[in-house]
């Protein structure tokens, strides 16, 4: 299920993700939520988090400055020629209505940069 997006990006630019979090207001459990990037016909997972049993948080972070909680890398790069990103959820379908009602937007901070060519 797509929670937010897709958000279009300029594929001629390069991006890294500095921060990615989302807000929920009730107990969400047994689902995973992830940030995905697409470029052309391809989609890659940038980060994800399993929301286990009885987890209630107002703001859930997938990426904070200096750490991607999926890969534990300090920099979360989007692929070259990235067209856009979206936030998706998957898991126990019993909870979809609750997820839709509880979701209140995401915070996505991208850093735009140019690659150095030699």
Topology:
Blueprint lengths: L1 E7 L5 E11 L6 E9 L2 E10 L7 E6 L2 E2 L7 E2 L6 E8 L4 H7 E11 L5
Antiparallel strand pairs: 1-8, 2-5, 2-7, 2-9, 3-4, 3-8, 5-6
Write structural notes for this entry.
The chain has 118 residues and is mostly beta strands. Helix content is 6%, strand content 56%. The protein has one helix and nine strands; from the N terminus they run ββββββββαβ. Strands 2, 5, 6, 7 and 9 form a five-stranded antiparallel beta sheet that branches. A four-stranded antiparallel beta sheet has the order 1-8-3-4, with no helix packed on it. It is globular.
The largest sheet is: 5 strands, antiparallel
- Give Rg in angstroms: 15 Å
Number of helices: 1
Helical content class:
under 10%
Q: Could you give the distance between the termini?
A: 42 Å
Decide which structural class fits the backbone. mainly beta
Q: Globular, elongated, flat, extended or rod-shaped: what is the shape?
A: globular
The ordered H/E elements are EEEEEEEEHE
Can you tell me the residue ranges where pLDDT is under 50 for at least 5 consecutive residues?
A: none
Instruction: Give the total of beta strands.
Output: 9
Q: Estimate what percentage of residues fall within beta strands.
A: over 45%
Average per-residue pLDDT, rounded, comes to 86
